[in-house]
């Protein structure tokens, strides 16, 4: 059983105790409590706050640099205190950027030996780096930041906006970046639903969240015009400082999660008012609301776009920064019992998908992918001679069978680096290069692509690597790129390859002819077929 170390930005022993006692959901454990059932020996380690505070002062300038540039902390002291535990593990899973970045920094320096799985937390939410990236500027800090982050062996991101930022930074590749949706603790909310908490009969609209993205100013403006509706807002003092709070709004500061769950039970509906921050925001409140099975009114921001909520079906979505629209949406949900019933039925369906258990399973799948001895990696300059050699050795199997020179290969690579619809991979077995393959001509609008350029080095042919290569590339196309239709072309007399593609799920669509002989177009469909079942 492999050992995986979960690395958190704060100590977690107390959080684990609260989970075990039923006082809190397991959201803050990020799947750790399920990993032992998924084939991993999972652990975490807390550090001395005294020593961490001391090291924070020692590395004060580092911390200030990162706060100025990306508006988050850089917990290098905590990472240094965890070095012995990290190097006893076989895999490290970091949670949030404030701790993930220093771990990657130490890996860059050669002090961290195991593979690092970097789970994106907020991802340069504000600050100078965001402005530089948006402006297309290559600053010294941007180079430093990407140098650190590229030390991660695998990156897990939680929303499309994070993927966009990875692409802008030149760090995205579907072979080592994986999307995983967040989830909430279904068992905790179910247990609270069965508790003896007394529910009052008055209509109540609940808002929960301490995130910087919460827009309680807009909510209060809407609530002021809904004087007959009772509102409760659970947040921190800083969220409401300087705001005028209407008389029909009760503000509750820093409640325990058990108390928050009881307020969810009492609520008629949940409202999630957010500013457009162009980052992950509101996700945990959204999945908590799914588990509480309440009708939801939410600001339609990028931070929750990957949940695919359908307006009027799964939730009521309103444009951010518009109190009139928010007011109207809340009024509609409060007054229309049939609408509330339909929304509750939908959130109940969504509650089964967005759980911490499913989150843990998806994270474990990504970790298994990242630590498999047989791995896909993007090609880079150092792979060019290998790619050229295996391509030339097997060129009779390609539609274009021309010999490729070193200069040809380098010209191709320079053009390849400029493309955004073409990914070529090397398959490695314990670090040995055994083959190559590609996903190219990607059409995101049609969710279609071509796959191919499959070739295994002669010394490894006949050992099953071709089947593994195809399977892994199809997994990337289906699970990460979310493509529906895959196409490939093969010579009609290449019976072995056609048999391999048939076994992988491809079917013959049509035949054609080139100067080299008969060709066969084979096609496979993924999600379109899945959704019709």
Catalogue the unreliable spans.
528-533
Please report the number of helical segments: 23
Total beta-strand segments:
19
Strand order of the largest sheet: 13-14-15-16-17-19-18
Name the overall outline. globular
What proportion of the residues is helical, as a percent range?
40-55%
What profile does the largest beta sheet have? Answer: 7 strands, mixed
Structural class label: alpha/beta
Mean pLDDT: 90
Strand proportion: 15-25%
N-end to C-end Cα span: 37 Å
Radius of gyration based on Cα positions: 26 Å
Write a concise synopsis of the structure shown:
This protein has 533 residues and is an alpha/beta fold.
Characterize the structure shown.
The chain is α/β, with parallel strands linked by helices. The chain has 23 helices and 19 strands. The strands form 3 sheets. It has a 7-stranded mixed sheet, with helices on both faces. Helix 13 (237-240) links the parallel strand 8 and strand 9. Helix 12 packs across helix 16 and helix 15 packs across helix 17. The longest helix has 16 residues, at 356-371. The chain starts with a strand and ends with a helix.
Keywords:
six-stranded parallel sheet; 42% helix; globular
List the helices and strands and how they pair.
Blueprint: E1 2-7, H1 13-21, H2 32-35, E2 40-44, H3 49-58, H4 60-70, H5 76-81, H6 83-88, E3 91-95, H7 97-108, E4 116-119, H8 128-135, H9 140-149, E5 154-157, H10 160-168, E6 177-179, H11 186-193, E7 204-208, H12 216-224, E8 230-235, H13 237-240, E9 249-253, H14 257-266, E10 269-272, H15 283-292, E11 296-299, E12 316-318, H16 323-335, H17 337-351, H18 356-371, E13 374-378, H19 384-393, H20 406-416, E14 422-429, E15 432-443, E16 448-456, H21 465-480, E17 485-491, H22 495-503, E18 507-514, E19 517-525, H23 527-532
Parallel strand pairs: 1-2, 1-3, 3-4, 4-5, 5-6, 7-8, 7-10, 8-9, 10-11, 11-12, 16-17
Antiparallel strand pairs: 13-14, 14-15, 15-16, 17-19, 18-19
Helix pairs in contact: 7-9, 12-16, 15-17
